[in-house]
Amino acid sequence: xxxxxxxxxxxxxxxxxxxxxxxxxxxxFHTLGRFTAKARNMAREFSRAMDDAAKESGVGDxxxxxxxxxxxxxxxxxxxxxAASKFEKWDPxxxxxxxxxxxxxxxxxxxxxxxxxxxxxxxKKASERLAAEAAAKSAADAPEQVAKQAKAKPAAKPKPxxxxxxxxxxxxxxxxxxxAE
Length: 181
Description:
It contains seven helices and no strands. The protein has 181 residues and is mainly α. The mean pLDDT is 77.
């Protein structure tokens, strides 16, 4: 804590020799030594009392337990890491070699069949969706094609019979309006 070297002690000794004097210097050092010894004794006694209190209350055991609980071996982290590495290397399509028997083989074949059905259904839905999108696009393009065809062909002249029918309709409308009034 306090870093006092030999040079600092020598300087303090010289200053003390000059201030206190050569007659009273040994008495002062003796008193200073007894004072530091008493302070060290009190610190040591306080430290022992604290250690004893900790032992009685079980703090030391709890500290040991906490250290054990936080160790990787006690927590089982090595097993977790081992399981994680096995999981990363695991291939679900590969047949299991750790468990042998017909049940495992049948289960693997069932999973392969189910996976194939899922792939087929997905492909079918995708092709249906693409066909629907193509039909929607062609329906959206149909009015444009009709407009192009109309521009390409000259407009046909209306027939006189059609004109007569058109004239008849307004007359009926006029009659119905009068009847409504």
